[in-house]
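--- STAGE predict ---
source: upstream dedup step, 1 unique chain passed
mode: sequence only
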Amino acid sequence: MKDPSTRATLECLLGDIARQGDVDAVVNAANAELRIGGGVAGALHRAAGPGLEEECRPLAPIAPGEAGITGAHRLPNRFVIHCLGPIFGVDEPADRLLERCYAAALDLAASHGIESIAFPAISTGAFGYPLEDATRVALAAVLGHLPQVPALVRVRFVLFDERALAIYERPRRAPGAEDAVSAPRPMALGRRGGRGAADGPLRADDPRREGGPGPWSGGVHEGLHRYSATDRSPAAGASPSSSTNARISSRILR
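--- STAGE serialize ---
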């Protein structure tokens, strides 16, 4: 779906975050040390090669809600933006920290001339953030921040299974998104209690902080599905066409 007052389009598709070769930047759902891990962090680091972790070292550690940017190395993109999402039930306020991830990523996109970006569903894997709640935060954060990134042409959410896609496709708006879509002002569409960010990262052996398996590890993981444009059945190496993206996008926030 595209807002006529802007150039940006929001897309939503099933796919592999490491195989989004038509966007300038991909977003890594990182751990605090910006090291290879499970899920998205593992997929991107393995595809990018060891140079990515080496470039990340001087940037680490980062706190929940923060982001950093590196080159993409062997990935088919220009940049990787690394965001540390909140661990649900640990990092609080979780919604604000998750919102900051998306805003920080878009700020880095603006400062580096990025015109297209692909996000995973940050914090919904091993960090345990409920997918429906995370979806509302993600859409509201992107809609609210896009006017500050006028060069951005495309924002893509790369989702990991049919359930996640169905949640993004629901004909409901994120909090605050209804006014943003309908109002005649520039707004774009194409989408822990205890510890707070100030308390610093969890201990080094906490598997969640390293992107390791946890009770929610069935979320964003290395065996990401690739679907064809026509029937969304698994198809090796296939990704949805732009027309399919537009159809999906139009169903998100109509």
